Fold each of these.
Amino acid sequence: MRTGTRRRADGRGRADGRGRASERGQAFALEAVVASLVLLGGLVFALQATAVTPLSASTSSQHIENQQAATAEGVLATAAADGSLRVAVLNWDDTEDRFYGVDTDQSYYTNTAPENGFGTLLSRAFDGRGIVFNVYVHYATDRDDDGEVDARRTQRMVYRGEPTDNAAAASRVVTLYDDEVLYDDSESPSGPTVSGSVFYAEDVTDTDAPSDTAVYNVVTVEVVVWRQ
Amino acid sequence: MAPVIPDPDGNRAQLVLVGGLVIAVGLVALAIVLNSGIYTHNLASRADPIASEAVGNAVVVDDSVEGLVEFAVRDDPNDNDAQNATVEAGVPDISAQLSRESARRGVLTNATVVALFPGTTVRQTADREFSDGASPADPSWEVADDAHGIRDFRMDVDRSSLTDRGLLSFPISSTVFNVTFQTTPDDVVVSVYQDSGTTAVLVTDEATGRTFGPCTDSTGSRTEIDLTGATVAGEHCAALERLGDLPRPYDVEFDGGDRAIGSYSLVANTTETPSGTVGAPGDSGPSGLETLYSVRVDVRFQSHRVDYRTNVTAAPGEPDG
């Protein structure tokens, strides 16, 4: 626009040049607008593309998930090594039909960790750090009593709500044998021998073996952890 | 279209346009480079659950079969055939249940028995000297002959029965109760004695003359020593960890068995009868029982990326086991 104005001030070719100069001015204006739009678009695109930064949720939570999963695996490995994981699985009150120490109507812990060695390990690892955990026991079951495993069920050991999308999980297998006995509230093996009537998991056989095997059930203890 | 090069009149709009494009493309390129770095770091820091699961599966099978071996021995003591049958029926059941669980994650697993290794339990359930069962009793006798391993070797000794160190001459092992592992080239000796009111456990490597320990216990009047688990009164004893590295086969001998009173039990990977006199199963003195020592299991793990196959030997209570 500035050039057009200056040209008109020159007074050259006023009659035949005025229209062309006016058209060029519009083209320059249009180009400037397009250039600014491209520049703006580029900036917006670049900002959008850099939305994933080391501190944004998607990447930082990955590291935290890794750490939480590793901690949960460590807790399970320690509990399996010192025998407290087996005690926690078998710490079942057969008269109340719930884990020992549960003070609600549920069969599982809701506010606290289990009152045994495994629960102590869980508390030391996660409580006080703003990390919540659920513990599930998955076990094989024979629903139609045809002597074969046909499903897996889950008994909650600790349930503190629905995990978030960024929850991490770790699990550990515990094999139970036919002569296992239930542990009481002082973690002594003084309860009855495990059977379908006193324990949440039943005696199952997952093979074509003609008779019952020494294996009672193969259960998986799963710990799910997430930040509050 | 207007000329790109500014004319003498100062037309610069084209230059601004091209400059804008260059800056925008540069910013986008920078963003892509930065984000690829961040994303690569993100991927690299992720754990590979499948790879660790393959090893974890072998550990789970090992743990489960070890428990099964212990159950079989508890259920049918002194009956090797029955113990073998229990394990051979139980392993496919464990394998099937583990396989059902892993199939939910798209992984195939399998475990099959490759071999069973019979062994011998030598134990003494009553409180008496560590001598053999002969009359008169021999205080120095071979408990296990040509053993390809020892597991679950525990003893419970009465501290007051042990020789007191204050009266001992050097070397200590010549005057106290010893468990001798006769290996090539030289023996490894575990000496158990009393030192200022505490129970002491000293390991001597006769090949080098070096001693390790002692590990001590002053609680109560008795001390439980787990030679294969490397603990003394429940506390870790690093000196005993040397027993896990002994060249096999070796003999196990009690020397100076009359210098200690207590009970003991061990499972040896041998079917050779001890040279000393042992009684029938059920005797409270030294007795020998047929016992399944270990089971070798072939473990397979197959996912869409990992095909892992290994052999594990389940021997509950073996050093480093």
Amino acid sequence: MDYKDYYKLLAVERGASQDEIKRSYRKLARKYHPDVSKEPDAEARFKELAEAYAVLKNPEKRAAYDELGSNWQGGQEFKRPPDWGTGFEFSGSGFDGADAGAYSDFFETLFGQGDMGSQFRTGASQGFHARGEDHHAKVLIDLEDAYTGATRSITLRAPELDQSGHVLTRDRTLNVKIPKGVKQGQKIRLSGQGSPGHGDGNAGDLYLEIEFRRHRFYKPEGKDIYMDLPVTPWEAALGGTIKVPTPAGSVDLKIPAGATNSQKLRLKGRGIPGKPPGDFYVVISITVPAADSDAAKELYEKMREELPYNPRHHLEV
Amino acid sequence: MTKKILTGTLLDDQLHLSLIEISEACASRTEWVVELVDEGILEPLGVERDQWRFPGESLFRANTARRLQRDLGMNLAGVALAIDLLEEISVLRARLRSQELEK
């Protein structure tokens, strides 16, 4: 087990006042809170901060922690000194929050773990019940899966308690049904699939957030799908019927004569299924062929001579 | 090897939760959920409390509110503002992502 330098984690000196500790915690907590932060390791960092603060904000726990001495380094192999902790009496249980099981082995060795294996008299130790932690994970699916529904297997690394109350991390694989009609960012709640509860507490829930794998040409926006459709200048000018892919299969799309660049054509109800279903939008993108052959050059020159067209008349020069 | 397939609840606007259901799902007292409604963080359908129906995404907002309040010591007005801003940022990020894709 590694020693944890709670002062270093909270970026304060050992002699810091309770106010300084609180200020530093609040500042770092805002930076690393998993609901707010985009730092890649935010969740792990926040857990460490919460643990450090749980100890240092409580004068009794802080005194007991200080008693270990200042010669330890963060990450150093730690064994609890045999005479440590005598004469300290903690008010309240080792845990303050509802999210029991969130703290490290180091914390549990020092301050016990709820009503399990604590050598301290903890006021709330009798009948310690807490609901297990909720878990959050992202599940990556293809856009096509939202049209048909799918089953995805996801692997989660979850902390579990063994019989002697130690925390082990264990990989667990779940097969989860992805319902038809899901959208980017939506959440699926699997009740009771989070951390087990403590005492008579219920297990937490697992929340899965839907994320679409990036598609080469479909762009989902809510329940609607957008796709750029390259067309030739003559298809745009004269109109025509073009074969267009959609996640539910290809369709023949009628381009109106005189279509303009960025014009949106709506295929009603061909977005993500639902009540009502989303729409599929085709965005016209006119592409101009290169004048890379004599024949092409000749055609362009003919247009220049015979087609009176000034796209810049609104610039008034 | 066959494994059980789990079916969860999709938190969308087709799902409606009662005040009791949403309180249980976020392990909180109903009074606290009522405070979220008073602050405008949750917007249930229906007038009387026992007829309130919360759209599915309310559960996620309530859980976020609970964590922000507990971990950052925010009051509910601050939580309401933070949640609004976080949602706006996530819309802007999604838009940015799709623009980057175009390039």
